[in-house]
Amino acid sequence: MIRVRNINVSITSNNLIDKISNKLKIDKKDILKYNIVKKSIDARRKNNILFVYEVDVELLNEDKILKSNKSKDIFITPNLKYKYNITGNITLNNRPIIVGSGPTGLFCAYFLAEAGYKPIILERGDKVDARVKKVEEFFNTNKLDINSNVVFGEGGAGTFSDGKLNTLVKDKLNRSRRIFEIFVECGAPKEIMYDAHPHIGTDILRKVVVNLRNKIIDMGGEFRFKSTVTDLIISNNKICGVIVNNKEKIESDVVVLAIGHSARDTFYMLKDKNILMRAKPFAVGVRIEHPREMIDSFQYGKFASILGPSSYKLTYKTKTGRGVYSFCMCPGGFVVNASSEEGYLSINGMSNYKRDERNSNSAIIVTVGPKDFGQDPMAGLEFQRELERKAYIAGHGLIPVQLYKDFCKKKVSTKFLDIYPNTKGSYNFADLNEIFPNYISDSLKEGIDAFSHKIKDFNRKDAVLLGVESRTSSPVIIVRNEFGEAITGLYPAGEGAGYAGGITTSAMDGVKTFENIIKKYKTN
Fold first, then answer.
1. Surface-to-core class of residue 431, CB atoms within 10 Å of its CB (0-12 exposed, 13-18 middle, 19+ buried)
2. What is the pLDDT of residues 249-270, one digit of tens each?
3. Which domains, from first to last, does the chain contain?
4. Predicted TM-score of the model (pTM)
């Protein structure tokens, strides 16, 4: 097959095959079939918005056409198959253990199971169905289960998110493509294979996670829910197993820590076991809500009704040098109470597949680092906690909200104007300035005002701010060697370990961890 890039098609036409034939300078009857590899939107000119395609085409006389076309946009379709080889020579006497069933844990488990290693997956929370019920109860009653909530449970924090899959990571080994193929096999929409900004949506992702679990079980994997790893068994700087729920001992020479960015008790346990960790930079801030129609109209103009919900990505450097940027933008979505500890409150964004809610929201966050909170490995974690404690107090246990105009005046809002919050979980009016140090509040205001030069009325007075967005990434790095280990047999992986951010990069790090394991170990 031949790959053809940069095919521009008007969004109001349906002439892709004509454009392919024109690009290749052939009659369209010579095109036997084609597959879309990538589809993006070029919205730089609002009066002429285009779809931009990359396609694989099967043709008559492919060699002849390749020779006659010298364009860099036309070339032989590359081999995109993901391959792995088991080269390890150390026999595993026990099944490998994976701690956590987020994207990192699930995809590490998938490939280990496929390769015959029969992993055991330990998850502190519930299966998806039970987890959803507990989360809905929390949204309605504020009754929190600290082990099964928006961040803990089957599928990890991504199960209650937009299900965004975009990543900027270069992937020469085609790990991400295979991950996407598995997602589709498990029920994700097929367009994630080619959409420039792929997403699944939390409603579909929940079903995908269940199907993925069942595939892993069919290949020999085993899941144990409500199973918190409370200790590690270590001898001579080598992992020997884990303790579950302070009582059950499970022996293993391989333990994958796919714990996610919110497993604070586990981080402290690792520190007590002298596992090397370092504090790392992250970012904190608020969620901001605007009408979805406002964002869509700005991005797509008169074609907004055709193109549907739109996203944005904004960055700014303040006068003091701090970075302010949008993060985890959720078109047509909700702001959700993502708390996981009693007396502490954090939020996140979430969208269903259709992204058809009335508001679009995004985190607007400010970079912070060890210079702000100290070098101790747990200092960033405690910095997050302090913000979450203040948010809980400010909102009287509920999500604290404030109009942007009142945030600028350090004044508690008393009523909404044209924009009402779209939340999962109740909220209270509060002054968000009371949550943050001045350098964060001031940076947020400077950044939001600057963003209004990129998106008209981004700083409108009735925009709704909600706090606190504190868990954008892990506050620590669990140091690992060139073989992916913290100590012999212990593999920190994914976002919680400080090596990924988001569903796709987390899943990819799970696959990398699988590769490190099979380079060293073989099945019994």
1. middle
2. 999 999 999 999 999 999 999 9
3. 2-76 (3.30.70.2700), 90-278+478-522 (3.50.50.60), 281-469 (no CATH)
4. 0.96
